[in-house]
Amino acid sequence: MTGILPSYQRFVNGVPVPSISRRSFRLREKYLIVSVLLTFGIVWLGALFYLPEFKSSTSVNDSVYNVYKRIQKAGPELLMPPPLAQNELGDFPAGAHHGESLDGEDPHVAEDRNRLRAKIEEDMGMKVLERPQFEAVPSASSSKGTSKRPVDALEEPAAGNNAASKSVSPSEPKLEGSENQYAVVALSSNADPDVKHKLGVVKEMMRHAWNNYKLYAWGKNELKPISKRAHLSSVFGNGELGATIVDGLDTLYLMGLRDEFREGREWVAEHLHIGELDSELSVFETNIRFVGGLLSCYSLTGDSIFKDKAVEVADALLPAFETPTGLPYALINPSTKASRQYHWAGPNSILSEIGTLDLEFKYLSDITGKDVYRKKVERIRDALNNIEKPSGLYPNFINPRTGQWGQRHMSLGALGDSFYEYLLKAWLMSGQTDEQARAMFDEAMPAALDKMLRVSPSGLSYLAEMKYGRILEEKMDHLSCFAGGMFGLASTTLENTLSERYMDVAKKLTHTCHESYARSETKLGPEAFRFSGAVEARAQKSNEKVYLLRPETFESYFIMWRLTKDQKYRDWGWEAVQALEKHCRVEGGYTGLVNVYHNKPQGDDVQQSFFLAETLKYLYLLFADDSLLPLDEWVFNTEAHPLPVRNKNPLYRPALTGELSDDNQV
Ligand code: DMJ
Questions:
Q1: Given the CA of residue 352, which atom of ligand 1 is nearest to it?
Q2: Among residues 130, 360, 527, 614, which one is catalytic?
Q3: CB of 139 closer than 6 angstroms to any ligand 1 atom
Q4: What is the CATH number of domain 165-659?
Q5: Domain ranges of the chain
Q6: Residue 144 or 642, more confident
Q7: Which residues of 229-258 are buried (b: 16+ CB within 10 A; e: fewer)?
Q8: Which ligand 1 atom is nearest residue 640's CA?
Q9: Is 527 considered catalytic here?
């Protein structure tokens, strides 16, 4: 019988000859041996260059690693190919599978791709469009360097003008060029030393994140803290927009990191030219991070460069609003002015994206006197207000051509979240005059609580998601953890018959989000957590087990601390600081984690810009005095950029009457 594998047995006169006595190989055998050796060599070389364990430890490998470093210096992309990029049509290369994020790839890109795949599956198989999932895959280089432990880095802030604190009078803020504008007081001089120490630790974390970004990725959008290079592929296209600079600037300012703030401000003044970018940007992300960040800096400092740059960025987004209904498309190319939807969303815009422009655009109109921005968002609000609401809620998808809802999927997590957040905040920021926003919030929230708020067998409250009026999955997103803070704020400001209920819900949701942290080995929370059977507040699928340096849980700790003064919120925040230091801090910055349930989790090698904008800011404010950004004078946009309350905060800085102009001046 002829075997499948080649026979190496030789026969002489019908007698088998022991192979050991052979002196030479047949040609076929030689080929086989050479290919085995070659394969082994390639795998061995690959391991030397890419596996973290080989990079860091043994002396045998030190010399190899030195060679690696020398080659790497010749050009970082030589050994490590650049992250996955979209092609001209916005598609991704083959080989990117559902639920996977490719090595070094931004989770947002993976998310986008998976949404696309979900959409294709839906089109082909009439499946229900699932909310996208992504799975972070560890980078080739995931070893953590030993990093300096934080010390009490708090510097006494300069006395004098405290631009962001409650005691400021309209005449006090110093404008352009004044040293005083950089002085911010976070703690009173007789502050508890323990609180002072904690505040100092968070400030040192910000320095570590910023300094490493500066060292390895200055001017690029984000940092890859493990491989110590720029993170190029992100929601901001492929340009160099300095997303981390713009997103992090107001945090630097509030922490009194003056030199860092100044260098960031100089970069913005000299290098931020969004209009020249020939690449697609997310309208939503650009608004919340760039417009929001610049407006905060303008409000805090009065430095007109920030206002001018906010105008430049907002103007670059305006072509996306040219639709029959005024509901904007998702993506815009500032240079060509072409805009389009995400492939995965079909013809639809996303509720959380079109509903999260209101604060920034109206404020921009007020400080420039140009009405064009206000008109854009008023049109969106009217469209959403006038359309019929299934089950009293707003579906996540709406078609800007027809003004009709797409799929009836509702959520307080991804795709829905900040739309609801902005209804409440628009009312607050308007000095409680935006009655339309308040009415829409007042109508939607009872429906949301009625339909989405669930209680687990052990009594944990959580927010599930709905499709076609039914609960879809007993699962809550990390993104939904902002809702504790939102309901807390609603309770103390709206003062209606639901106030008590809102506060109860706020406490319970914040407790559940903390549980999702407490139940993981790292004490950091997963991207989504489930409630099914014996499992409560724990992720089950691998793509839910990631921690992306997200801020939402800490946002709720901060708001709830301010509102209740319950010490547990500060304690929970400190637990988080320690967990971040233990698991996310690497020599080159801070990394997200691939699995929060591992004792020694691998990093995802991305330092998200919102880590500087939101995560560290909320943790810092948690330990700062209430007088630093008092909640009745400031409203945080969804990226944690503080914006002043109209007619209440002297730093609102509205345009003088003489500056008022019409839309044509844009
Ligand atoms: C931030 O960019 C914003 O908070 C946004 O509203 C949702 N998610 C990220 C952070 O997780």
A1: 6
A2: 527
A3: no
A4: 1.50.10.10
A5: 68-130, 165-659
A6: 642
A7: bbbbbbbbbbbbbbbbbbbbbbbbbbbbbb
A8: 4
A9: yes
